[in-house]
Amino acid sequence: MTGKRISGGRTTGGRVSGGPVGPISGEAPSQAHGAPGAPASRLPLDAPRPQPGVPTVRKPFSGGPGGPISGEAPSQAHGAPGAPASRLPLDAPRPQPGVPPVRKPFSGTMMAPLLLGVALNPINSTMIATALVAVGHAFGVGVAQTAWLVASLYLASAVGQPTMGRLADLVGPRKVFLGGLVVVLAAGLVGALAPAFGWLIASRVLLGVGTSAAYPSAMAMLRAESRRVGVEAPRPVLGRLSLASLASAAVGPVLGGALAATLGWRAVFAVNIPAALIGLALAWRWAPADPPRAADRGRVDLDPPGLLLFAATIATTMLFLMNLAHPDWLLLVLVALLGSALVAWELRADRPFLDLRLLGRSPGLTRTFVRSGLTYLVLYCMLYGFSQWLQESHGLSSFHAGLIALPMSVTAAVFSLLGARTKTLRVPLVVLTLLLGAGSALLLVLDAHTPIAVLVLASTLFGVGQGLASSCNQAAVYAQAPADGTGSAAGLQRTSIYLGAILSSSVLALLYGSRATDVGLHGIALVMSLLCAALLLFTAADRALRAGR
């Protein structure tokens, strides 16, 4: 056998070497033939040897002789000059023909349509304020009638947010997000072309329903993205949603006033048409696809009886809270009856609209809803009550009152982002409650002769608290909600905020009466201080937050 060649090698004393004459199967050509710069690797002595007449066994997951491993560029597989000699790991995901490349998680393009959609509800909530007088003159209606343009959107949003959140969990957040934008488009058309005042009410109801789809759907999409990439959504990403809401609410009155002054009040409704079209284009292109639905979720069960009972209970509750100065006790009895029927039905339903058992199993989430409602009750008392007092008691114009309130909006936007960068939830929630308490205590000593600098300080304190409350309570909902119920939980949190807003208007009506006075402001401040003290105890005792959740 000495000197006889076998399969491109040669024998030396009965041993097979992979010498320079020919490659042994399994080596790359450049390595086997001693290409310049290639390592002169050899097979181990105990490796299986090729036998005459037996087909060569190729390397597992290789592309065969002369072919690249799947997923490698040809230049890498064949050792083209200048190409790295590295190969993809065997367990690395391989690009498949016809499948688009995987996008960067939580990218700017993904977030763009979500931020635009989330901004539509708060901007429409505040944009109408500067157009109410013009609308009243156009249709010959008074303040009591135009106030329904504000209340109707709140009512529709309070019911629409959890409804759209439930739909997002059932049929997919992307579908619900796009559907909501279509409703916003229709609302803009109805309002812009409204021939009578009633059509404007209908437009505002449609706006409340359509814009309610964005926030719970956005939260559900972020949760789905987290599950796709195996990484929780970064807190700064959630902070952007808070910033979009706060900034748009602050811009709303300025934008509404500019539109009404230059193009007429109909432009306040018509502006939703291009906004919805842009949102549809961005969402169609960049919103993440809905995740596959499980087999046991093949049919959509929205629980219509539960939905109707929930809507009736919320609407009746808000109608009662809107007029606490002259309460209609029959409404309160109706609230109790509807609420009892809702609880009884939902506890028996197989797929309840409002999963009361989940709220019982997640007390931390339930406490977050309560904390959000109470926090925004304090904030809305400040937002509406302070501005009214500045004009009627301190003697400032609406423009100067807006300038004093401006630091609240600016600091809220800044601290919503800073709050999103905190490592825990409990500490910033306690801090914001202390700040709200300090601001409420400051309101107790204000009068018509208070310096402007002190007024700005009060506005700033509440702005810091609002920014932290927005981002931290939102993060708490995201952390505490079940993965398949994020949309519903986000919607219920928004409902608690709307209830706080409605209740604040009743507190102002009770304590101000027909005019905002120093005594009335001090009474409101006392109520706010007591609420802050209760909030502080409530937050400090929350075991879910103490556990770092």
UniProtKB/TrEMBL annotation:
Transmembrane segment boundaries = 114-139, 145-164, 176-199, 243-261, 267-287, 307-323, 329-347, 368-387, 399-420, 427-446, 452-469, 496-513, 519-541
Q: Which UniProt keywords apply?
A: Membrane, Transmembrane, Transmembrane helix, Transport
Protein topology in the membrane: Multi-pass membrane protein
- Is Transmembrane included in the keywords of this UniProt record? yes
Compartments where found = Cell inner membrane
Gene Ontology molecular function: any one = transmembrane transporter activity
InterPro entries in the record: MFS (IPR011701), MFS_dom (IPR020846), MFS_trans_sf (IPR036259)
Read off the Pfam families from this record: MFS_1
* PROSITE patterns associated with the record: MFS (PS50850)
Q: Which domain of life is it from?
A: Bacteria
**Residues of the signal peptide:** none
Gene3D superfamilies xrefs: MFS general substrate transporter like domains (1.20.1250.20), Multidrug resistance protein D (1.20.1720.10)
Keyword Ligase in record:
no
- Looking at the record, the residues that make up the Major facilitator superfamily (MFS) profile domain are 110-544
Q: Which GO terms describe its cellular component?
A: plasma membrane
Q: Where is this region: Disordered?
A: 1-99
List where Gly residues composition bias occurs.
10-21
Designated name of the protein:
Predicted arabinose efflux permease, MFS family
What organism, scientifically named, is this protein from?
A: Streptacidiphilus jiangxiensis
